[in-house]
Amino acid sequence: MSEVIVLDKRIRDFPILEEAQDDDVLLASTDTDTYALRVKAFNERYAAGEQARMDAEVKRATAEQNRETSENSRVETEGKRDDAELQRQENEKARQSAETAREEAETDREQKHTAAMGEAAEATQQATDAAAMAKELAEHPDDPRNGTWWRWDLEQHAYVDTGQRAVLNYDKVYPSVEAMEGDADNQPPSTTAIISTDVNIEDNAKLYVKRTDGTWGFIADLSGFPGVGIESVKQTAGDHTPGTTDTYTIKLTDERQIEVPVYNGSNGQDGEVSIDQLTAAVETARSRSWEVVVPAEGWIESAATWGDLEAKWETTIEVPDMTDIPDIIKIDFVDGSRQANGRWTWVACDVGSVTLYSTHNTPPESEFTTRITEVR
Questions:
Q1: H or E stretch including 81?
Q2: Degrees (nearest 5) of the Cα angle 176, 181, 183?
Q3: DSSP code, position 184
Q4: Residue 6, exposed/middle/buried by CB under 10 A (0-12, 13-18, 19+)?
Q5: Contact 209, 165 (CB under 8 A)
Q6: Strands 158-165, 172-174: pairing kind
Q7: How many other C-beta atoms can be found within 10 angstroms of the C-beta atom of residue 142?
């Protein structure tokens, strides 16, 4: 079919298209043909076509809008999907990190648990071994033999000689302090020396120990107290009447006095006084003694030394009756635990108190009583 062309020129012959009558004729031609078309028919066909075109355009625009909306929705959905995928990937990474951390924490927990069980087992074994060693040492306290301390060896399970003196003795004898000091360079530390000279010389019987700095340290004067004798014996009460008691006062050379009662016999009976009474009275005046109760509590760590002995424990006991310091004493066990009594090494007296020192690894664990007697 040939293309129909509406000639604008023909239409424009009318003043305006709206003034054309329905019966008016419009001429339309193609390249080869010319057609006559009434205005009414043209208007009807043009209007219908225009309406169809407009409807189609509306539909097209609507469809385009719907397409754009759908595309926007698709793009938005795709973006959300991409975001969701990214979030999923991040969540997966976080899950993997959390899982890795959990596995590492579990591994660390298992390692720590294993280590703790091993340490607990080791600590239990160590405690068991320590208890066994403590029991073994407690059953084998230090023992003085042949002038030195013998100590229980946990490896050999036998006593071994420590070489530490267990009794007071001396290594060297010098005629004077000057001679001792002149020989200091030839004697090793811890050497003990005593001065042996005329009993009327003040330095006689003094005991020294060689210090680590090369000098001699004074330990004690072993010369003792001057002897105590009887200056006079006088009757101070009584008249010798038979059946009564006279009193005699014995005055000692150190100015002390002792009263001794003497019974006067009647009807030919002899008076009752014996040599034992007089001896006991004099001995009472010559010496003093103190019974000291040493409790298990109160021992503290010590760093005191005496010669080459080093104390590890010490305890101080109050002795109110010790009004002065005795120079020479002897010590006797009285009561309590003999084992505890054997675990101290030396004693130091002071006015009103005594201090006991122990070189053992552990202090005495039981109470005991000892008697300190002044030797005159």
A1: helix 39-139
A2: 100
A3: G
A4: middle
A5: no
A6: unpaired
A7: 21
Q: Give the Cα separation of 163 and 29 in Å (integer).
A: 149
Whether residue 301 contacts residue 360, with contact meaning beta carbons closer than 8 Å, is answered with no
**Whether the Cβ atoms of residue 209 and residue 308 lie closer than 8 Å to each other:** yes
Residue identified by tokens 């002071």 is 350
Rounded distance, CA 50 to CA 99, Å?
A: 70
Range 10-38 average pLDDT: 61
Pairing type for strands 192-195 and 172-174 reads parallel
CB distance 41 to 4 below 8 Å: no
CA distances from 282 to 102, 261, 325 (A): 92, 14, 21
For residue 242, what are the domain limits?
A: 230-286
Identify whether 107 is part of a domain.
no
189 domain-assigned: no
Residue that finishes a domain, picked among 258, 286, 314: 286
Q: What mean pLDDT do residues 148-170 have?
A: 77
Instruction: Give CA angle at 261 (260, 265), nearest 5°.
Output: 140
Give bridge partners of residue 310 from the DSSP assignment. 305
Q: What is the pTM of this model?
A: 0.32
pLDDT digits (tens, 9 = 90+) for 317-352: 999 888 888 877 778 888 888 777 777 878 888 889
